[in-house]
Specification:
Rossmann fold, 38% helix, 9 helices, alpha/beta
């Protein structure tokens, strides 16, 4: 039997390093699908997903999306036949976004200058992401040092205005009970990691890997 292909999509501003502690079954080939620059600040998420999908080189892949990458996985699955979608620390539809991710938040986002929005955000982001080790904090600090503010504004705006109602069949959704960006009380996952936070991809990787091993198609 030929190998199946998994494409990993990281969270906002992150890269393939967040997946390095996951262990996948040996009969899967694993690829990382990197973020690309948006064409403009108002590029629709569906059009952006279409451009991302053109970088997938294998038929009917499995998409594993972390946080915003999970939302992107669903948008890609609208346009490309996929074998399965797996979400980690993410949401499936508009109803699972917290109610304060709304038009008012979008207006605040648009009104704040880059200096206020991005320059002094380190402490708040670390608290939100729930880092538990020095290694995790160093990795997050590296992400925070990136200067691609156009992408960051586009991504935040896309999250706040995401209106998805569609879900691919057979979706696997792994979520932490203590997640702060996407609180568990608004989310109905297929699997819950007790006391898992938003960065559980690193500090609860073995539990996530066990779930993947049992549920990947």
């Amino acid at each position: 039997m030929s190998k199946r292909h998994i494409y990993l999509i990281s969270g906002l501003g992150a890269d393939e390093r967040v997946f390095e502690r996951l262990v996948f079954p040996a009969d899967y080939d694993v690829h990382y699908l990197p973020w690309i620059p948006p064409l403009n600040a108002d590029e629709p998420i569906g059009e952006y997903a279409g451009r991302m999908a053109r970088r997938i080189l294998h038929p009917e892949p499995i998409l594993v999306g972390l946080s915003f990458g999970g939302m992107m996985s669903i948008e890609i699955a609208r346009q490309l036949p996929v074998r399965q979608v797996v979400l980690i620390s993410s949401v499936k539809n508009r109803q699972e976004l917290p109610p304060y991710y709304n038009n008012f938040a979008r207006k605040v986002l648009h009104s704040l200058p880059d200096r206020l929005l991005f320059t002094n955000r380190r402490f708040i982001v670390q608290l939100f992401m729930q880092c538990q080790s020095t290694e995790e904090r160093l990795l997050l600090n590296d992400y925070l040092g990136k200067k691609d503010l156009r992408y960051m504004r586009w991504a935040l705006n896309s999250i706040l205005q995401w209106n998805n109602e569609w879900m691919p069949p057979g979706i696997v959704h792994i979520h932490g009970s203590s997640d702060r960006p996407f609180p568990r009380r608004y989310v109905t996952p297929t699997h819950t990691i007790v006391k898992g936070g938003h960065f559980m991809i690193m500090n609860r990787a073995q539990e996530i890997s066990n779930i993947l091993e049992k549920n990947l198609l």
